[in-house]
Specification:
46% helix; mainly alpha; 10% strand; three-stranded antiparallel beta sheet; 116 residues; single chain
Length: 116
């Protein structure tokens, strides 16, 4: 497993956590846990390396939902009730993007959410 893929995944998710002011100790701990778990996963399935970044983002999103609620929230839809973004494609790659769950629009590539 190429460790640069894991480092890239970590950096991209951390950038999005920071952009949305959600890089708390809990969130960073969830990120570290997700990276460690996906390292084992990628070692078992080397062909799946292109999916690692998106899967790490999904893992962090799932972990945060149970502790601190939805992340990241969509800031694009002014009239809609509070809702999240999700990673597309579902398996997390290649080239994962954040998509609005209400409109279906691509909001940003993973690692490039705009700051709040």
């Amino acid at each position: 497993m190429d460790s640069s893929l894991l480092l890239d995944a970590r950096a991209r998710v951390l950038a999005d956590l920071q952009a949305r002011r959600h890089a708390t100790a809990t969130a960073v701990s969830a990120l570290e846990d997700a990276v460690a778990a996906r390292q084992w996963w990628a070692e078992q399935w080397p062909e799946g390396a292109v999916y690692v970044a998106g899967l790490v983002a999904q893992d962090v999103q799932d972990a945060l939902f149970s502790t601190s609620g939805r992340w990241p929230l969509c800031l694009e839809c002014d009239d809609a009730p509070e809702h999240s973004l999700f990673i597309s494609p579902d398996l997390g790659g290649p080239d994962p993007v954040w998509v609005c769950e209400e409109s279906g629009r691509v909001v940003a590539a993973l690692g490039f959410l705009h700051r709040t």
